[in-house]
Design a protein that fits this description.
Chain lengths: 115, 114
């Protein structure tokens, strides 16, 4: 079974631009979560989508948004990029939340550099 | 709010040494606890988990026991290898409801020398 894939793996943008990152979950997984990883703040939860609906949201400004498609693929968008948005963005997928234990499987991440 | 505190790194050990990485948590209710590992240039991999008090998670020689009385989930391995060099993250997830957000510690960099 293929794992979680994220594209692109590396991205360089300049301040003020916007960026879209993509995540394809494991086949059959309906929940997709996004995390930001930086040296200073560590791993922080951005948001989670299930069946095309945002269920949970972390404490990030409105410049960070996302969506999920009917095939469970997800995208996140960051508008008006700032230097502090430079980070590794990780996507994680998991099965239907009705299961007792709902392991999250992580992708390799997209490394975003804002210049 | 929920939080996870793990020992500051980096940790440097010689091959076959004993490893302990401390992790304590603050959360209401009965969270599930996890250890994830991140190898250079890769995403996170689940190393082990425990879903209730006194559970012991184990995998690849690593172990951790869910201690509710001390709110701890310390990671141990009896004999580390060079291939164990990575960043280790302790994490929790609240049980119940529909919030599957993971709350992570800051991570501990482990370097094992031959």
């Amino acid at each position: 079974k293929a794992g979680v894939t994220q594209t692109p793996r590396y991205l360089i943008k300049t301040r003020g631009q916007q960026v879209t990152l993509s995540c394809s979950p494991i086949s059959g997984h309906r929940s997709v979560s996004w995390y930001q990883q930086t040296p200073g703040q560590g791993l922080q939860f951005l948001f989670e989508y299930f069946s095309e609906t945002q269920r949970n949201k972390g404490n990030f400004p409105g410049r960070f948004s996302g969506r999920q498609f009917s095939n469970s693929r997800s995208e996140m968008n960051v508008s008006t990029l700032e230097l502090g948005d430079s980070a590794l963005y990780l996507c994680a997928s998991s099965l239907d939340p009705g299961t007792l234990y709902n392991e999250q499987f992580f992708g390799p991440g997209t490394r975003l550099t804002v210049l | 709010g929920d939080s996870v505190t793990q020992m500051e790194g980096p940790v440097t050990l010689s091959e076959e040494a004993f490893l302990t990485i401390n992790c304590t948590y603050t959360a209401t209710g009965y969270p599930s606890l996890f250890w994830y590992v991140q190898y250079p240039g890769e995403g996170l991999q689940l190393l082990l988990k425990a879903t209730k008090a006194d559970d012991k998670g184990s995998n690849k020689g690593f172990e951790a026991t869910y201690r509710k009385e001390t709110t701890s989930f310390h990671l141990e391995k009896g004999s580390v290898q060079v291939s164990d060099s990575a960043v280790y993250f302790c994490a929790l997830r609240k049980s119940g409801g529909s919030n599957y957000k993971l709350t992570f510690g800051k991570g501990t960099l482990l370097t094992v020398n031959p």
